[in-house]
Design a protein that fits this description.
766 residues; mainly alpha; 5-stranded parallel beta sheet; two-stranded antiparallel ribbon; 38 helices; ATP binding; ATP-binding protein; P-loop_NTPase; Cro/C1-type_HTH; nucleotide-binding
Length: 766
């Protein structure tokens, strides 16, 4: 075999690739290299690839043993020249060496691959810089060190790691950091320039001709980092920081998300041992969840277990399940989750610390800037700016689509501890009361957008300039702030502001019909009934007990609780001689009895409800009679009497046609749409398909215009069935597909029926 000459490797590789009929992209993919790295090898820009790289290329090219040895021999001269070039420069004396790698390092495959691509694709005129930023405890330093060990062979001129000590009272100054880096590169102390700018220039000069890997760990800010970055050459710099360092230009950002559950269990397995995890697999999953899948917390839990070989995982999982003890338990030796969080907390100014810990007092999984500003007692604009900076520090996370913020579970516990420790009870109570009053006032005003009765007076919103305008923005706000205004409702009740609680629930009455899939309506109307009782207002108590029965029936699907609430409403309404609420209570009780299968009792109550409302001459009595007749007809249909059901619903239509004075067109349209829906079902049961289609189509148009999905979905479903019986398959499929979408989007219990009807259509087609 002839001896290869320097520079031959790239030519030989290119010829082998062409002979194999492979593109650069395909060979690079097969060998596990970047296209840029392969191109640099072929052009001779990169010489002397390592043995593992040559072996990977040989396998991808399908070379024989002799061909592989020949290609390996062609790489040797380039390696020799590289070693000579390295020997000609100053030799690093060993300071700033990499820390020990974690032998049980787990996951982070995508992030490691991203760094490998950066290392292989380095361009001399733009040295690669990777920023690894995020919340405390994510394992940023461990990741950077592990990556450096993994990439070490690619950087034969050395790997350096410098801790910039961002969490210290005085982080490392740029000039001092430069002096240490220059010393590690062999620059004698007496020759190091005095000025920071000159030191930075010398560092750039030295790194331009070397292939180094630098870890700049625990960086404070951009001002500290900028002078330390190489200006040219093929170095790779990995910067870790608790700040996002968004001011750095032309850097690659490497995201370290929370571990997935299976990755978290794998980390525990590597620390604790396969056998213990296999014996208590579910306990290991529970531990992963209690640790919030945060690497630091998982490592602490794992090392605690490793130090106590006789302790069961289930015991630790049960202890960690108690939130008030969780942070106490997540410490072992000199490692503490609480200490890691405290370092970041102490870096904040006084107002930002106040804002952050007060955010932990918010209800629900996330919060808005308005809630944060109210809890902290600072202007909204100031809160918005500070919340963004807290996200930059990894102490909060922002929603990708909305201006909302959330904690990691463990950070929330720590923030709540700080609020309990640093804020006196009167100030915390004042913050909660201020927030609750504002939230309940806005929720009441937003809900009134859906009331069937027009409201021309002031809305009562606490900040009209930022109030939701129109139904869509109001609904979006009520949805996003559901946990917060519900907590405000309970706060009003427990602090004696019973009138506000009752008025807020009353404002929610019509909105609740549009969102029957919310189980929270049980809480809303139970709270309102309790508040009305505390006010000594039996009529309002009966009304909200009736609403509670509706919520148990329609939202929580708990007919036994619904019957109990309806009977309580009936007793209160009769005691205060309120015919309207008496009739409603009979109707809600009948609805519960129907769901319990007690049809004869249900029909009897519905007849009594209709009679009670018939004797009530008020417009509200007429509307209630319409509802009672509609429900009676529905029950008769369910009980197998479609002719009697049709009679009840036609009676309801007659009342509607005669007109009800004082009612808005919007409200009357709701009743018209529902009556037609029932009539369509009756006609379908009687196999009067044409009449059924006409009624259901008109009902669909009305309910869609009114935007009432809780009733629209069933109408679409029934129309689809009618069209299937009429052998109009395409139209049936369109109606049933719309029904499935509407019912599924609103968690309606009849979504399974729509899916089954579509399957029936498909089976008939085949």
């Amino acid at each position: 075999m002839t001896r290869p000459i320097p520079g031959e490797f790239g030519q030989r590789l290119r010829a082998l690739r062409a002979g194999a009929g492979l593109s650069q992209e395909r060979l690079a993919h097969s060998a596990g290299l970047s296209v840029r790295a392969l191109a640099n090898l072929e052009r001779g820009r990169t010489t002397g690839p390592q043995r593992h790289t040559v072996q990977a290329l040989s396998r991808a090219l399908g070379l024989s043993a002799d061909e592989t040895r020949s290609l390996e021999a062609a790489a040797v001269p380039g390696r020799a020249r590289h070693r000579q070039a390295k020997a000609a420069g100053p030799t690093p004396p060993g300071i700033l060496a990499l820390p020990r790698d974690a032998g049980d390092f787990t996951a982070r495959g995508a992030a490691l691959t991203a760094l490998e691509h950066l290392a292989d694709g380095a361009e001399p005129d733009c040295p690669s810089v990777a920023v690894v930023a995020g919340a405390p405890g994510l394992g940023k330093t461990a990741f950077a060190v592990h990556a450096a060990h993994r990439l070490a062979a690619r950087f034969p001129d050395g790997q350096l790691c410098l801790d910039l000590r961002a969490m210290d009272p005085e982080p490392v100054r740029p000039g001092d950091a430069l002096a240490r880096l220059l010393a590690a590169l062999g620059v004698a102390a007496q020759t190091v320039p005095r000025a920071t700018e000159d030191r930075a220039g010398l560092l750039r000069s030295l790194t331009a001709t070397r292939r180094l890997l630098l870890i700049l760990d625990n960086a404070a800010d951009e001002e500290q980092i900028r002078p330390l970055l190489p200006g040219s050459g093929t170095c790779l710099t990995i910067v870790t920081s608790r700040n996002c360092l968004s001011g750095l230009d032309a850097v690659h950002r490497v995201e370290l998300p929370l571990l997935r559950r299976e990755e978290a269990v794998e980390l525990l397995t590597r620390i604790v041992g396969t056998e213990r995890i296999a014996r208590e697999t579910q306990a290991a999953r529970d531990l992963a969840d209690s640790c919030g899948r945060l690497p630091l917390a998982l490592r602490i839990a794992g090392q605690r277990l490793a130090a106590r070989p006789g302790e069961s995982l289930a015991k630790l999982a049960a202890l960690l399940d108690r939130e008030h003890r969780r942070l106490d338990l997540l410490q072992t030796g000199d490692r503490q989750v609480r200490s890691a969080f405290a370092l970041s907390y102490r870096q904040l100014d006084d107002v930002s610390r106040l804002l952050w810990r007060r955010c932990a007092l918010a209800a629900g999984q996330d919060l808005s800037p308005e809630t944060a500003a109210l809890l902290a007692g600072i202007p909204l604009r100031d809160a918005q700016l500070r919340l963004d900076r807290l996200c930059d520090r990894g102490l909060l996370h922002t929603d990708p689509a909305a201006e909302r913020y959330r904690f990691h579970d463990l950070l929330r516990l720590f923030a709540a501890e700080q609020a309990a420790t640093e804020d006196d009870p009167p100030s915390r109570d004042a913050a909660l009361d201020r927030t609750a009053r504002w939230m309940l006032a806005r929720a009441t005003a937003a809900a009134l957008h859906f009331d069937a009765e027009p409201h021309n007076g002031p809305s009562g919103d606490p900040d009209p300039a930022t109030a939701p305008t129109g139904r869509d923005p109001a609904r979006a706000w009520l949805e996003a702030e559901r946990a917060q205004w519900l907590a405000a409702l309970h706060h009003a009740r427990t602090t004696g502001r019973h009138r506000q609680a009752v008025d807020a629930a009353r404002a929610m009455y019509w909105f609740s019909d549009l969102t029957q899939h919310w189980p929270q309506w049980v809480d809303v109307f139970r709270c309102a009934a309790d508040a009305a009782r505390a006010l000594g207002s039996p009529r309002e108590e009966a009304a909200h007990l009736n609403n509670l029965a509706w919520a148990h029936n329609r939202c929580a699907h708990d007919p036994r609780a619904a019957l109990e609430s309806a009977d309580a409403a009936l007793a209160v309404a009769r005691a205060c001689e309120d015919p309207l609420q008496t009739g409603w209570a009979l109707g809600h009780g009948a609805g519960a009895l129907r769901r319990l299968g007690r049809m004869d009792e249900a029909i009897a109550r519905l007849r009594a409800s209709a009679a009670c409302h018939h004797d009530n001459p008020t417009p509200q009595g007429r509307l209630a009679e319409l509802t009672a007749l509609n429900t009676l007809g529905e029950a008769l249909l369910q009980h197998g009497h479609p002719d009697r059901a049709l009679e009840a619903h036609l009676h309801s239509l007659e009342i509607y046609d005669r007109g009800i004075p004082g009612q808005t067109p919007h409200l009357l349209a709701i009743y018209h749409g529902v009556i037609l829906q029932h009539l369509g079902n009756d006609y379908a049961a009687l196999e009067r398909w044409q009449e059924a289609e006409a009624a259901l189509r008109t009902s669909w148009d009305i309910l869609e215009e009114l935007d009432i999905p809780a009733w629209l979905g069933p109408t679409q479903l029934e129309l689809g069935r009618v069209l299937r019986h009429l052998d109009r398959t395409d139209e049936a499929r369109t109606a049933l597909t719309a029904a499935l979408h509407t019912l599924t989007a609103h968690h309606h219990p009849r979504q399974a029926e729509a899916a089954a009807e579509l399957r029936t259509l498909d089976s008939a087609r085949h």
